[in-house]
Write a structure and sequence with these properties.
There is one protein chain. The chain has three domains: about 100 residues, no CATH class; about 120 residues, no CATH class; about 150 residues, no CATH class. The protein is about 45% helix and about 5% strand. The strands form four sheets. It has a three-stranded antiparallel sheet with strand order 2-1-3. Helix 5 runs parallel beside helix 11 and helix 6 crosses helix 8. Bound molecules: zinc ion. The site of zinc ion (ZN) has 8 residues, from helix 17.
Length: about 425
């Protein structure tokens, strides 16, 4: 047997077979386990790298597929081979996890992005490019764009919102995201250069003029799922923009109303009407079940973010803690449009311009004073109750009540059966 005889055409045939059978059947058929860390990234999908190489071997004339014990899957063998053939292999220690939801998979990828750091801060090239693509997907705009358009749009954004000292070079994030399996490039010849250096990289993009954008599965997820968008925005903001004023960037990419969770901003409660999946009505699943599941999903996103943040928080005290859009959405969903203060004397009967109840989401304890950005520590209040809580004589008493309310309502929604 000779692994080195395998070319990209056998690998592609193995990938096609994987797609056809699905991961589980493919692995069972060729007797491989799930990859423990190395995944082959191809056109936005991920494949167990060793199983692909073993199967590809069977496509060589007169050869049969190799099984797991026939060769090593590590960097020196299967992974090295795939990389030499120009494929992207990502190192993903969590990849053997059972049946990940596409959204969690995407979030894991975002958490694993490799970005440059300058004076302790991560570079913003890749997060800015991803937020731009997220905004485009949200609006249903074309996934793949000619290089000229991508370059222009990203250059403008990087000029306005990049870190000081970062050059507005769209080829950096596009190349880096491509090598992380999060950006596809079409219509080019030869491998895509790594996101280093200067003239060679620039020249490659100028000469090839690739058509590019996020991979189709990523685009589809961001297009159809508001929940996924909020999760992605949350993940990017909390990882890369901590302490920065990200509002103008979100405005520019068309994600402001979806992401910003400002206690004082009642108008941005709007985008929530679409949140409980119209599809549920078709399947006959009771509304309350769908809503409870949605609540739980948002809480999971919030908790995922909290765990990502742990340990990071100590690096830099932030005067502008980033709040979770998911936490805010969960609280509004839970409130069912009513002020959560049990002693509320009357919520305004009016609604916002888009028909949403007039409610403000409040952190019962200030984040700056150690409060949690989590639905169990947040309430939806009408403007009257919010004012009492902020500057009323009885505010301390109310705060204690609201902490109990937040905890109880959260517990009830997290566990609707009460068991
Ligand atoms: Zn009230």
């Amino acid at each position: 047997m000779a692994l080195t005889d395998i070319t990209s055409s056998e690998v592609i045939r193995a990938i096609e077979e994987f797609d056809l059978l699905g991961r589980e059947r493919f692995l069972r058929m060729y007797e491989f386990g799930r990859a423990r860390r190395y995944l082959l990234a191809h056109e936005g999908r991920f494949y167990d790298s060793k199983a692909i190489v073993g199967t590809a071997h069977g496509y060589l004339p007169g050869q049969s597929p190799l099984t797991a014990k026939d060769f090593s899957g590590g960097e020196r063998h299967a992974v090295g081979l795939l990389r030499r053939l120009g494929f992207t292999v990502v190192d993903d220690p969590g990849s053997s996890r059972a049946q990940q939801a596409p959204q969690d998979h995407l979030l894991d990828r975002l958490a694993g992005l490799k970005v440059n750091r300058a004076s302790g801060r991560p570079a913003l090239y890749q997060p800015i490019a991803l937020l731009w693509a997220t905004g485009r997907a949200r609006r249903g705009e074309r996934r793949l764009l000619p290089w000229g358009e991508t370059e222009q749009a990203l250059r403008d954004l990087l000029e306005r919102h990049g870190m000081r000292g970062e050059r507005p070079r769209p080829d950096y994030p596009v190349s880096a995201l491509h090598h992380a399996g999060l950006w596809v490039l079409h219509d080019h010849s030869g491998p895509v250069p790594k996101a280093h250096g200067d003239a060679a990289l620039r020249r490659w993009f100028a000469e090839n003029q690739p058509l590019s954008g996020v991979p189709e599965p990523v685009y589809d997820l961001l297009r159809r799922s508001g929940e996924a968008r909020v999760a992605v925005i949350d993940a990017l903001l909390c990882t890369y923009f901590n302490g920065l004023d990200y509002g103008p960037l979100l405005m520019d990419v068309g994600l402001y109303d979806e992401a910003v969770a400002d206690d004082a901003d009642a108008d941005s409660t709007d985008a929530d009407a679409d949140s409980t999946d119209g599809g549920a009505r078709d399947t006959g699943v009771p509304h309350a079940v769908v809503v409870a599941a949605q609540y739980e999903r948002w809480c999971r996103i919030v908790e995922h973010r909290e765990s990502e943040n742990r340990g990071r928080r100590t690096t830099r005290a932030s005067t502008n803690p980033i709040r979770s859009g998911s936490a805010r959405r969960a609280v509004l969903l839970r409130s069912e449009g009513r002020c959560e203060n049990p002693r509320c004397t009357g919520q305004p009967a009016d609604v916002t311009a888009s028909g949403a109840p007039i409610l403000e989401v409040d952190h019962v304890m200030d984040l700056a004073q150690g409060g949690r950005d989590h639905p169990s520590h947040m309430v939806a209040l009408c403007p009257n109750c919010h004012a009492i809580k902020t500057r009323g004589r009885t505010r301390e008493e109310l705060r204690a009540t609201l902490l109990d309310v937040a905890r109880e309502n959260h517990a009830r929604w997290s566990n609707p059966q009460g068991g």
